[in-house]
Design a protein that fits this description.
20 strands; eight-stranded mixed beta sheet; 25% strand; eight-stranded parallel beta sheet; globular; alpha/beta
């Protein structure tokens, strides 16, 4: 099948930026033509293409005029919940939410039931995702047996099963265990992803420590709970000369620590999530449990520091930390509510706000949401001849109001309900197959 995406502004950081046509065949990009450029093998008139001297009909044409065409977005922090918590999300609904949000690839966290700490669970996730044939799913496995933080898993076997990174996605209290995990993972070339938190400092806390927590009568979590964890893991990264990725950075102190570590050549990368540069702890007023997450929403100074960290390159990645919950876990007292919000279907418009504000260029946004995650994980990404046709098309002018009832995810736990948004994915293509389309 021949597919033509024509007339869009193609943005691939450090590679392409201009109005172009893309021709796709057999799951790969086979031709890139700048507007007005003449090539002997180029699509002649939008109806046919000349390939190997043969004139062939183009099977489908997508007019991307006025829209942005970019490498397929990749979300490297997604909780798919299956196996074990299918009432919150299934692999199918999570993949559908990803496609609607513009993501061609997602990485699945290991906190399922049973935990993804063995070959059988990793292969189950990959098999179900392959059967869906929708977005690409890359499983992360647990660092420790059952997420208990005390027994190392069989990293070599997990890698053979298809796992591409390791994380417990919760605090690792034992520093010696973390050291051994970094050393063991290094031997297999696997990235370690850390949820940096000192559990003793955060114990009992349900929101950011500060004036608003005092006003609401809620227990607070200090910035130091995260930053102590960040600084410890940076030290262990230096000790072991291993690669480390720090997830969902939320504090100004963490940004400073990561920036300093990068400055002296430590092999770390970092991510944040849209909620940490969009909302402050002020959003918790009213006890909306959809503002409860871990790490918690921080102060306005922290919000500005996260945006600055994205702008200056300290933070490499924007990931959603998509964490669907059911109503029975959120429609309770704030103290008792589960941590986490859904994010796959709101990440793109919230990231585009950074472009609108001048914090990021459009190419910078593509780097944070597509090419940097791929580079960190050792995966392929980019608009190049011969590359897999993983492509996202964004309409910057599309306006809409968030209505969680329209989400493809089973989760409705969003703090952005009824928020006016501008910009969204209108086409998601994975390996040349259209998995979502909302083009006019």
């Amino acid at each position: 099948m021949l597919t033509l995406i024509k007339g869009g502004r193609v943005v691939d950081p450090g590679n392409l930026d201009g109005v172009m046509d893309l021709l796709v065949s057999d799951g790969k990009i086979i031709e890139i033509r700048k507007k007005g450029e003449k090539k002997g093998s180029s699509p002649a008139d939008g109806d046919h293409a000349f390939l190997n001297g043969e004139k062939l009909p183009i099977d489908q044409v997508f007019d991307a005029t006025g829209k942005i065409v970019m490498p397929g977005l990749m979300d490297m922090h997604v909780h798919l919940r299956e196996p074990g918590y299918e009432y919150k999300e299934t692999i199918e609904t999570g993949c559908r939410a990803a496609a609607h949000g513009g993501f061609a690839s997602i990485c699945a966290m290991p906190d399922t039931n049973p935990v993804n700490d063995n070959r059988q669970v990793a292969e189950f996730i990959l098999k179900k995702a392959a059967a869906l044939d929708m977005v690409k799913v890359y499983p992360f496995a647990a660092l420790s047996r059952g997420l208990n933080g005390d027994i190392l898993n069989e990293y070599g076997e997990l890698k053979q099963a298809g796992v591409i990174a390791l994380t417990d996605n919760r605090p690792i209290r034992n520093s010696q265990f973390m050291r051994r995990a970094l050393e063991y993972a290094k031997g297999f070339g696997l990235l370690v992803i850390s949820h940096c938190e000192d559990p003793d400092l955060s114990a009992g806390g349900v929101m950011n420590e500060g004036a608003i927590a005092t006003q609401l009568g809620l227990s607070g979590i200090p910035n130091a709970a995260e930053c102590v964890g960040v600084m410890r893991d940076i030290a262990l990264c230096e000790l072991t000369d291993s690669r480390l990725h720090i997830a969902h950075v939320s504090t100004k102190e963490s940004v400073r620590a990561i920036q300093a570590a990068k400055g002296r050549g430590v092999k770390i990368t970092a991510a944040t999530a849209p909620q940490y540069y969009t909302l402050s702890d002020n959003a918790v007023i009213g006890y909306n449990t959809h503002t409860k997450m871990n790490p918690p929403l921080r102060s306005r100074d922290d919000v500005q520091a996260i945006a600055q960290g994205l702008a200056d390159g300290t933070i490499d990645v924007i990931a959603s930390d998509h964490a669907p919950h059911s109503s029975i876990e959120k429609e309770v007292e704030f103290d008792l509510a589960a941590d986490g919000i859904v994010g796959l279907e709101t990440s793109v418009p919230l990231a585009l706000r950074l472009v609108e504000q001048g914090t990021l260029s459009l190419a910078g946004l593509v780097a944070k949401m597509a090419t940097n995650p791929a580079r960190i994980l050792g995966l392929e990404s980019g608009i190049r001849i011969g590359a897999p046709a993983d492509i996202t098309v964004i309409d910057l002018e599309k306006k809409y109001t968030v209505n969680s009832n329209n989400f493809q995810s089973l989760g409705r736990n969003t703090p952005f309900e009824n928020r006016q948004m501008q910009g969204r994915a209108v086409l998601t293509m994975v390996g040349g197959k259209v998995v979502y389309k909302h083009l006019n």
